[in-house]
Amino acid sequence: MALHLVGVDPESGGGNCPTIWVDPDTRDLVIQGRKADEQTTRDCLKTGAIPATEAVVRIPASMVSMMREACDAAERPEL
Question: What is the largest distance, in Å, between two alpha-carbon atoms of the chain?
């Protein structure tokens, strides 16, 4: 099944990133974001390694309401 689009950052210049979806089959949140800067990545590494298959991304505060909506959508059975 196709991903359920929750929203795109209203402050993104090109209108395509960051973006949040919910996978209706697994209820996973799928997030496209800006790759974190080196200092943020170093700070995150203090709590453990980041596998090569993962990345630290930064989601802007302007998308907090969309994150809440995505979490709520992931918990709704009728998604």
Answer: 40
Its domain, for residue 30, covers 20-75
d(CA 9, CA 14): 10
Residue 67 is assigned to a structural domain of this protein: yes
Q: List % helix, strand, coil for the chain (3-state, nearest 5).
A: 30, 20, 50
Scan for tokens 């809440």, then name that residue: 68
Hey, how many other C-beta atoms are within 10 angstroms of the C-beta on 30? 15
Predicted local distance difference test score (pLDDT) of residue 14: 75
In a domain? residue 56: yes
pTM > 0.70: yes
User: What does the block give as tokens for 15?
Assistant: 């209108």
